[in-house]
Structure formats: C-alpha cells, structure tokens
Specification:
Blueprint lengths: L2 E3 L1 H9 L10 E2 L2 E2 L2 E4 L4 E4 L3 H9 L7 H11 L4 H8 L21 H13 L4 H17 L8 E3 L2 H18 L1 H4 L4 H16 L8 H24 L18 H11 L6 H17 L1 H14 L1 H12 L12 H4 L3 H14 L3 E5 L5 E2 L4 E2 L4 E5 H5 L23 E2 L20 H5 L5 E2 L21 H18 E5 L6 E2 L9 E2 L5 E5 L3
Parallel strand pairs: 1-4, 5-10
Antiparallel strand pairs: 2-3, 4-5, 6-16, 7-10, 8-9, 11-12, 13-16, 14-15
Length: 511
C-alpha cells in the first residue's frame, strides 16, 4: 500500500522551495512512502525512519545511476550519446557486478566512479587532501592581513567562497585550473543558475545559466590540454597524492577510466568533472558559513567551544589542531550535525534494476525510481528530541546530538538513549557527555545512506570541524546585518544560504 499523488501535485511541491511539506503524508501517525503518478511513469517518495533504515540496508538499492544521468544531461550538459553508456550500466556500485548484469568492465561507470570517489575522498586520498585543504585555508586567512582592530567586510558568503571554496578547489584540482581567467567568477555564476538547469529550463528561458555552464565546460576542456602537456610522474607531491596540474590522484584516475569507456571523450568527462567540482564546493561553502553564523551569534556557545579547544593539544606549529582530536569533541560535532540537520534539504535518488524492495510493510517494484528528501526526516517531530518543545526542530540547538548521563531528556531521539545503548563506547566513557548519531540512520540523512551514501561525507565533516576550530582560534566575528533569512530556492539540490548579503566585521583574536 502506498499513497498516490498526481503529477500536478508533484510539480507544485518540487518547484516551490519548501512546499515539499505538502508531501509529508502520515500513516497511523508516522511518515509514510507515497507514489507519484507521472504521465509516462511513476516515482516513489520514501520517508519514515524505519523504512529509510531498511532502504539503506538493501545492497542493490545503493546505485544513484538514475539521478546521476539526469544530472549529467540537464545540469552538467552531457550529450545523449555519452549518457547512453551510463544508462546501460545496471551492474551496481560494488566491485563484483550484479549476477544478472553483462556490462563490460570498462563500461561499469557506476562502480568505477563510486570507487574512485571512495579512494580519493574517504580512503587513501583523504589524509593528503585534508592536509592540503587546511594549509590552503590557513594561508588564505593569514594573507587577509586582519589585525587586532575591527575591519568590516561586505559579504559573508563571498568571504567563504574565496577562502573555503578556493582552498578545496586547489587541494582537489590543483592551482593550474584556478589560474584560468574568470574561472572562479564563471563557477559562481554557474552555481547561481543551477536551479534553472535543474528544472530543465531551456536556453531561451535561462540564457545566463546555460552560458555559465558552457563557459565552465570550456574551462575544463582547455585545462585538460594544459595539464596533459605539463604533468609527469615527477609532478606528484611528497604526499603521494597531489600535483600542481591535475590536483589529486582522484582527478588523474578519472582521466584514465572515464576515457576508456564507450562513447566518452573530453566533452563527456568535462560534464562529469563539472559535477564533482560543483558538489565539492557548493555544499561545504554554505555549510561552513552557516556553522560560523550559528557559532558566532551565540556568545555562550563560543565560550564553550573555545574552552574545548583550549584543552586540546595543538600541533608542533603551535597553531593548528589535530583533526582526530576534533572528531572526539562532543560539542563541536553536535554543532556540525545540527547545522546539517537544519539546513541540508536535498534529494537522494535510488533505483533497483533487478529486484523489488520491501521493508515488511511497504512494497515497491523493481526498476522504479526511489526519491528520499532529507527535509521530512530532519523535521519529524515524532522522532526527534525537542526537550519538551524547548528546542523546536526549526531552530538551532547546539547540543541536540549530545547524550548527557546527568540529563534523562538529552540525546537526539525523542524515545531517549542511554550510555548503555552505546555498547563498549558507553562503558568506556561512562559519566561523560557523548556525541551520538546512533539510531538515526533513517532520520539524519544529509548525505543519503547505505553503501551509496555521499563518499565525501568523511572529508566534509573534517573540513567543517577544522574551519570551526580555525575561525574560533584566530578571530572574533560580529554580524552587522539584522534579521538574516534563508534562501531556499535551491531546495532539493543544495544547502540553504542567506537570502541577503551578510555584512560582518572581524578582528584578530588576542588571548
């Protein structure tokens, strides 16, 4: 049994920011899946923490290939003949292909792409990439020349685009790409127009968006030529991963396996790389901004976080922090998780080409498209703890993800959680406050879930913790724009951003 909605209702919901709330159907008091009838097919909107947790556990439901091909075509501009190779890949994201698939190894683009991202963002490449990012970020902040006197700045988003966005781009793609004339301007023009491309607006209705995309694809294809001429094995940095031309082994490897597949050329690869480039900066930048916005708006929270940082041992340079120490800090990690819960409202799309899905209550046939949106999950009052309404889900509560043994009303879940529920970890740290995501597999889903969850989630968490620690230790920040509101026009594909320019002032912190 699934609730049915018309195509017109779907369009109205997906086309107008948070009108998604209209699809929050409840069955017996709980979020439930719905089926949306379209003119030629149907889409299944899956919600409810129990159903989602079951969905993530289904091995052959981990492939995002349907959404990937739609994005490659309509957002990132790939030609149909190149997309056919992606559409034909029903082998799955695992090293061993599905037994009913006969896709050639070179054409297993779902697995090859996902595996490359895992290696580059979560496994071998994670440490070197994070170190390069931190070095770039600190260097950019130091070059600002901020002194102990207050200095006003006109736009908080621009500050993070230049200092966070450029730092990750250089770490991942190398400095050569960033030196191209107007590249960064064109990137942010493309970002501003992506909501029109995502809604499939034709050129004559969104010419700026289409032109920005064309310029970005031209940048990437010209960069390929330049990088191939300049790169040698001797170009690889001592960290074994980075280089000044391609940037990282993640990007170098994509040149090898993507171009080896059928119907793929530089034009096709540039669409894929535009997707990687866009996702690598346009989620971390607003998430970093919103984290800092929440932290520096709350003096008490600032003091607590700075006290936590004061108890950590810095590296030999006396300035930077060990990211492994930051990962153990309950409050910093709760701030990170709460920022994503409140502001990340995105769709995760899956398809099961070979078998049906059921969680024991709901049934969806094979070869149908599943869509999951994080907004209903993140705003589910039946599941999340609000501490008897003191901390509503549409507000930021820095300690929502902290389990305090002295407070029976603490923890993220409304039904409660004890230290004993955490197993060995709870026993080892009995009596201490703990950060926890336990039991939230179907409720906290900013990265999707299961094996197909965003491969960059480990990098993103570490980046946000480092940004938070660095800004708190280096600067005082005050916001000068009152009544900041959020722009939700990117609902479904991007993190919220402030609707207006946020003026602020900052100064070097003196301890």
């Amino acid at each position: 049994m699934l609730y049915r909605f018309s195509a017109a209702r779907l369009v109205s919901c997906l086309g107008v920011q948070n009108s998604w709330i209209e699809l929050r159907v409840r069955y017996a008091g709980y979020l439930a899946p719905v089926r949306i009838s379209l003119p030629v097919d149907e889409i299944y909107m899956i919600s409810g923490p129990t159903t989602l947790a079951a969905l993530w556990r289904q091995k052959w439901l981990s492939s995002p290939i349907f959404a990937y091909t739609v994005g490659l075509k309509y957002i990132f501009g790939m030609r149909e003949e190149s997309i056919r190779t992606y559409k034909a890949d029903n082998s799955g994201v695992y090293q061993k292909p599905h037994p009913d698939s006969n896709v050639e190894p070179r054409n297993r683009l779902d697995y090859l792409t996902h595996n490359g991202l895992l290696k580059g963002l979560a496994k071998e490449g994670l440490g070197p990439l994070l170190q390069r990012f931190e070095h770039n970020f600190r260097s950019r902040l130091s070059s600002l020349g901020v002194t102990e006197e207050w200095v006003e700045m006109p736009d908080l988003l621009e500050f993070f685009e230049q200092n966070v966005g450029n730092s990750i781009l250089e770490a991942l793609f190398g400095p050569t790409l960033l030196t191209r004339k107007n590249f960064l301007r064109d990137l942010w023009d493309f970002d501003r127009g992506i909501r029109f491309l995502g809604k499939r607006f034709p050129w004559f209705l969104a010419p700026k968006a289409h032109r920005a995309r064309d310029r970005m694809l031209a940048h990437l294809q010209a960069w390929y030529i330049e990088a191939r001429k300049g790169f040698t094995e001797a170009s690889i940095l001592p960290d074994g991963d980075g280089d000044p031309f391609w940037g990282s082994e993640l990007v170098r490897s994509r040149q090898r396996y993507l171009l080896a597949a059928d119907e793929q050329d530089d034009a096709a690869v540039s669409s894929v790389d535009l997707g990687l480039l866009w996702t690598s900066v346009t989620n971390i930048v607003p998430n970093a901004l919103l984290t800092i916005l929440h932290v520096f708006e709350d003096q008490e929270l600032q003091s607590k976080l700075r006290q936590s940082l004061a108890n950590l041992t810095k590296r030999s340079d006396g300035v930077s922090f060990n990211v492994e120490d930051l990962l153990q800090d309950p409050l910093m990690n709760s701030v990170y998780a709460e920022t994503l819960r409140l502001h990340v409202h995105v769709f995760t799309t899956r398809c099961s080409p070979h078998q049906d899905f059921t969680d024991g209550r709901w049934f969806v046939p094979r070869n149908k498209v599943f869509m999951v949106n994080s907004y209903p999950a993140h705003m589910d009052n039946s599941y999340w703890n609000t501490k008897d309404g003191k901390h509503p889900l549409n507000t930021f509560w820095a300690e929502r993800f902290i389990l305090d043994p002295s407070d029976p009303l603490s923890g993220p879940r409304k039904d409660g959680l004890s230290h004993d529920d955490l197993g060995d970890k709870g026993i080892e740290k009995a009596g201490e406050k703990l950060f926890t995501l336990k039991g939230l597999d179907g409720a906290w889903i900013p990265y999707g879930g299961g094996y197909g969850a965003c491969p960059g989630r480990h990098l993103a968490r570490r980046q946000l913790l480092l940004i938070m620690a660095t800004m708190l230790s280096m600067f005082d920040v005050e916001f000068l724009t009152p009544n900041i509101t959020m722009d939700t026009s990117g609902f479904g594909i991007a993190t919220e951003k402030p609707k207006q320019k946020v003026k602020f002032r900052m100064r070097k912190r003196v301890v």
